[in-house]
Write a structure and sequence with these properties.
By secondary structure, the protein is an alpha/beta fold. It is about 40% helix and about 20% strand.
Length: about 160
């Protein structure tokens, strides 16, 4: 499986090596939700509010910034069958608008990554029940993937 991580923002420091390690751990957990499906390629784009807003408008039809957008693609003719997808992750949102009082920006960013990968597996959060199921799974992934939960520091910022 090919993993690409590209930072399109410069405001917020992210340790790419540590982020890549976390993403690979989360990918291994996400792949378990899609037995029989080969994951071919995942691209992660690290953006800020200004970078994600036009994608949010184009893909979701929503105005303004959001935390993460997931795009899943079918294989093109001639390509090996399998899952391909992109995550557009708002690093600025993670660093400036944490949702949980005791969470760090790094923990919030890890949650965005887990949430995006959960969507790649086909999970949907259109109802409160489905949203709660996804969140429980994502938090479990973060604990299993040696990433943050409400008590554990996430190792992806390079601000140390």
């Amino acid at each position: 499986m090919t993993l690409t991580i590209a930072s399109h923002q410069r405001k917020f420091p992210v340790d790419r090596k540590r982020l890549s390690s976390l993403v690979r751990q989360l990918l291994a957990l996400a792949q378990r939700r899609t037995p029989g499906v080969t994951w071919q390629e995942v691209a992660i784009h690290l953006l800020d509010d200004a970078g994600i807003a036009p994608i949010n408008e184009a893909v979701m039809g929503h105005t303004g910034a959001t935390d993460v957008i997931t795009q899943r693609y079918d294989s093109c003719p001639g390509e090996p069958e399998g899952l391909r997808g992109e995550l557009f992750v708002n690093v600025e949102r993670a660093f400036t608008v944490p949702r949980r009082k005791q969470w760090t920006a790094e923990q919030e960013l890890a949650l965005y990554l887990a949430h995006g990968l959960d969507h790649l597996t086909g999970a949907d959060d259109a109802t409160p029940s489905a949203r709660a199921t996804m969140r429980r799974r994502e938090l479990a992934w973060l604990r299993k993937g040696n990433a943050p939960d409400a008590q554990v520091e996430c190792p992806i910022s390079n601000k140390e």
